[in-house]
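2024-03-11 09:14:02 DEBUG pipeline.ingest accepted 1 chain
2024-03-11 09:14:02 DEBUG pipeline.ingest length=269
2024-03-11 09:14:03 DEBUG pipeline.predict start
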Amino acid sequence: MKNMFNIIPQFLKNPQEFFESVQRNEELKIKGFSLFISTVVFLMIYGFITGLSHSLSQGLSTAVKMPVLFLLTLAFTLPALYFFALALLNVQFSVAQAGVVVLSGIGVAAFLLMGLSPVTLFFVLTSSNYSFFQLIAVLFVAVSGFTGLYYVLRGFTWVDKNQELTSNSVGNTLLRAWVVLYGFVGAQMTWRLSPLIGDPNEPFYLLRPSRDNFFVDVINAFQKSFGAGRTDFSFGIGDVLAFAVLAGLIGLFLGSIGLLFGWGRKNRL
């Protein structure tokens, strides 16, 4: 069990060695199972703390929803990547290898989110600005998710023996298109599973998507956070710190996008 939860820290120390062992089909079942369990646990920890901003019931609900969000998004999008790669390119990896590669990226995202759990708890305890907390949570997930996707792309550079996904324009385009697809499916899944945080002024709902969509909800949260339609512009210490963290995360988010879409300039990262 201890080694199971060490798989992601060990992976981060030497991702190339991990991916090359995946290419050799070494212990794929053990790797996949360990990544799955550790990812679920890490996401449940983060989800529970995030939901506590509303109530204990919401915390328990979000603890279940968070791993469902990431893993269902993987389940819906991985077949598209694999079958398009088979149809368009001479790829030399199995669906099991592709699954372990993508799970490793989701595991990295989950590991980072667990690391951000104490920061999230701080804002839960100190900030009463619900819309601002929504933005913080969205950016935490976005930065962690894009970092995880970066490792997914790195993984395919080592697992694909013929380098079809990384050495030609069709493969690069396919991987970038899949990243965008994963992001959109994840956003839609987030909206369908909402609320993940829950408005403290409303009762607990297990599932209650808004009338709009994920992107409109984020825009509305941004407008409310920065005073649109508000008459009270007072901020507590938690809100001020949240603003500082939000500004930093926006910078990290933009940097992670640049890193993610600039990865293909080198065949080996």
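2024-03-11 09:14:41 DEBUG pipeline.report The chain has a mean pLDDT of 78.
2024-03-11 09:14:41 DEBUG pipeline.predict end
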